[in-house]
Design a protein that fits this description.
2 copies of one chain form a homodimer. Chain A has 116 residues and is of the alpha+beta class. Chain A is 62% helix and 12% strand. In chain A, strands 1-3-2 form a 3-stranded antiparallel beta sheet. The structure holds a DNA duplex (30 and 30 nucleotides).
Chain lengths: 116, 116
DNA sequence: TTATTATATGAATAAGTGTTCATATAATAT
DNA sequence: ATATTATATGAACACTTATTCATATAATAA
């Protein structure tokens, strides 16, 4: 490694990177959060909930698939605080956890030129 | 499904969700993009490149691991247009693809209360 | 040309993940 | 209490994915 034209700047960037690298715990948390929203069936759930809160029956209606599969995905999203739940009688009503979720989805859509 | 207190609104939300659901292709592209940034080793690479462009040697230095493993991860990030590459002599210099990448990382950090 | 340096990649293995099926829990109705 | 409705969950299987090892390519130097 002596021939790169920008060797010196790269070495400084690497040094800064080592100083400013988030902790392993933060990296793991970020990875888990992104993993939670990186599966098609879970993304569909999020886009569905973007239209407003819904109970499981309607989520299944909106995104397709079996009740069991949707329920498993809801748990993953909930465990990662991407969505939240409240009980209403026999139903569990789900909604997006906070505005960050929508913001990230919209940013990614813009990045990829997806229509919303 | 007749007992939920908000049955009617949920049904409307589900109906809107079906109309406004992104195409399967867009969902797949979004899922792939999030999957690309949902692994600890790849996230470390992104946080490293946040400090500026770097060639592989310095990325390996900044994030640890073997050259081969880093190279495989770089390909995944590149295939998903999260990072871009240019050749400089014998070196390949990598950098973040665009501002969206940093924006998404920062949003997620705020969501999870990670320090940057 | 041959050697060296920088980076990429195919194959293999090990670990992780999504769905299905069957069943469990929890609330309500009879 | 029993039945019904809504949702959740454990286990199993198929599929995917990250890393390692060995090797390939690409640029440059001698």
């Amino acid at each position: 490694m002596k021939n790169c034209e920008h060797e010196e700047e790269h070495a400084y960037a690497a040094a800064r990177a080592k100083c400013n690298m988030p902790s392993d715990d933060d990296i793991a948390a970020l990875a888990a959060a992104f993993k939670a929203i990186s599966e098609p069936s879970r993304l569909k759930i999020l886009f569905a909930l973007r239209q407003g809160e819904m109970c499981v029956y309607h989520i299944v209606d909106a995104v397709g698939g079996t009740q069991s599969a949707v329920s498993h995905q809801l748990r993953i999203l909930r465990d990662n605080r991407v969505i939240k739940a409240r009980r209403d009688g026999q139903n569990i009503v789900y909604s997006l956890a906070d505005a960050h979720v929508v913001a990230v989805l919209e940013l990614a859509c813009r990045h990829l030129n997806c229509k919303l």
